[in-house]
Amino acid sequence: MIPITKPMLGENEAEAARRVILSGWTSQGPEVAAFEKEFAEYVGAPHACAVSSCTTALHLALLAVGVQPGDEVITVSHSFIATANVVLYCGAKPVFVDIEPDTFNLDPRQLESAITDRTRAILCVHQIGMPCDLASIVKIARRHSLPVVEDAACAVGSEIFWQGQWEKIGKPQGDVACFSFHPRKVISTGDGGMITTANPEWDARFRLLRQHGMSVPDTVRHGSSQVIFESYPIVGYNFRMTDIQAAVGREQLKRLPEIVSKRRNLASRYKTLLAEIPGLGLPVEPDWARSTWQSFCVRLPEGADQRQVMQSMLDDGVSTRRGIMCSHREAAYPANAWSCAGRNAGTDCTAESCQCLRHSEEAQTQTIILPLFPQMGLDQQDHVVTALHDALRVVMLNE
Ligand SMILES: *Cc1c(COP(=O)(O)O)cnc(C)c1O
Questions:
Q1: How far is the CA of 193 from the centre of ligand 1 (A)?
Q2: pLDDT digits over 149-181, tens only?
């Protein structure tokens, strides 16, 4: 069976975890600090703050930029549900904007019509590692004095051509970027997240909020020769990363260039091989973007049933996933929990079908995600392509 993905972990990561366990200090400490420093250097960010996941990273990012109950945050429905959930955690309402059908990313042409006097932030997503059109998004955001938070869960290693040069996602080009180290993403610490920003006040806020709002971190008290009493000026959370995870993350960072390069080679080979299949839509990478290809998503030919194609490939030993979900179609999002640019204008949209989010809904039902991982052999990749070709022949015949 060819899996959809496989984290690239080995002896170095195991040894790093062992070293931390035997040191006796396993919670947020020196390894987290070192991982933050190395990650910041890698993406070129002034500040990086490690947390327990990308979901908690996004939650703290929205709180830091000032999202409050009753506010609106503009984002996409077509994303993993955590993107929309963090807006609800803040008591705010997600306002969904449709995607571009070829990049699966927020369509900047729809952005301005979604802005109201309640809009407090724009939460854009670099979906499955493909940088979104930050140049257009940031321009509109600046015009309306809105902060841009980037959901970069899948974009560790992604690059964007920015003001005349290639930069890593996370510098950040917006105001705050949030990353994930879940095993389904590019590098993994089991679970884990990172927040980068150029704003030192926000960075201080993340550090306070991730550790119960505690004025003096335990690492400082531990290392002091004086007795220190901490205080709790605000209500915070426990969103810490452990030192065991951070030590694994530092080893993963060393592998990152190799991981990204292998993923890019496989993606480019997929594009060549899959071009042979009639009617299949291939992912589009704008010339100002370099993806990590965290997922390789193809659009099935018109009339091909998604479930049947996936079942046929599974029978052939290839696991796939359906296209990215749409949060507005889930029971957790009844019609009063969200809004969309069209609904503000009085268009009749329901949870079952939203005219304003047509491209999002079509991408969910018309695309599938193919296996892609750095250890993938060329014979395995050939097998995926053959399995897809065969599945489509059978499914289209039965139509
Ligand atoms: C995976 C993912 C998240 C959540 O990341 P966790 O680290 O699992 O919390 C958020 N947004 C997007 C776009 C994702 O793909």
A1: 9
A2: 999 999 999 999 999 999 999 999 999 999 999
**227 and 265 in a common domain:** no
* pLDDT one-digit tens code per residue, 252-303: 999 999 999 999 999 999 999 999 999 999 999 999 999 999 999 999 999 9
Among 254, 278, 304, identify where a domain stops: 254
Task: Give the CA angle between residues 26, 178, 166 to the nearest 5°.
Answer: 120
Task: Give distance in angstroms: CA of 221 to centre of ligand 1.
Answer: 33
Of the residues 254, 274, 308, the one at which a domain ends? 254
Give residue ranges with CB within 6 A of ligand 1. 53-55, 79-80, 82-83, 125, 151, 153-154, 180, 182, 193
Q: How far apart are CA 270 and CA 286, in angstroms?
A: 17
pTM of the model: 0.96
In this prediction, what percent of the chain has a pLDDT beyond 90? 90
- Closest-lying ligand 1 atom to the alpha carbon of residue 125: 13
**Residue 392, amino acid:** L
Decide if 185 contacts 317 (C-beta within 8 A).
no
User: Is the same domain home to 240 and 290?
Assistant: no
Q: Calculate helix-pair angle for 54-64, 82-89, nearest 10 degrees.
A: 40
Torsion angle in degrees (nearest 10) through CA of 195, 200, 202, 206: 50
* Mean pLDDT, rounded, for 311-338: 95
Question: Can you give the CATH number for the domain in which 260 is found?
Answer: 3.90.1150.10
99 shares a domain with 219: yes
For residues 218 and 260, state if they share a domain.
no
